[in-house]
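Work Package 3 (structural annotation) set out to generate three-dimensional models for the target panel prioritized at the project kickoff. During this period the team completed the workflow that converts sequence records into discrete structure tokens, so that structures can be stored uniformly alongside our sequence database. As a representative example, we reproduce one entry of 231 residues exactly as it appears in the project archive.
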Amino acid sequence: MDKKKKRGGFLKPLLMMLVVFGPASILVLITMGKCEHNFTTLPIYSEMPDYEFVGAGGEVINNKTQEGKVTLFTTIQTTCPQNCAIDIFKFNLQIYQDYRKNQKSLGHVKIVSVVTDQDGNPVDNIDELLFTMNDMIEGYDSTIWNLVTGDPKQIYDIENNGVNLYSLTSDSTFAGKSYLETMLIVDKQNQLRLVRRGNQEGLIRDYKQHVALLQKQYDKNDKLKREAKEN
């Protein structure tokens, strides 16, 4: 009985996110088995709102600095960075380590984690968390995975189908706030391309596949541009 209740508690916010940002959730399944020249592209949900954060080295991170880059946004908590809102252990193994080792082809993909307290409030000092990241993440590099300070509402105050992600709540999510468990994919033009929860291994794997799908779209566009120049 308890297991059924727990499963239902997890599915409720997930299903809500599928209703709000659902179409992209099946894109990878649709494209599996298709040939290289016939694949579905990620939808564009909206332009990202204006945001400005301060990175680990004191640098400004905003819409302009991220132009031309694919930015993966998450939150991370000072109280329990490994398993609060996002499963950082799985995120590190499945995403960060791969991107770190493939900077030649994936150097334009940047991870930005907005640091909050256990209630989702902004924090001012992230020195201790930076020490923890360097200790628990192999080859941690803030130029690839940057911890930033600032209000997470700046990037999560987004709406689709009449539902606002920042306002979405659920008793089964961390601190009751769904956005804290949510990862975003923002493209090179500062457009939101995917919303996905990050507290399960399968969801993180699916998220990575969508980043690859977006990259495939860029590769195809670059190829078409080269062919057009040659002709």
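The longest strand covers residues 70-77.
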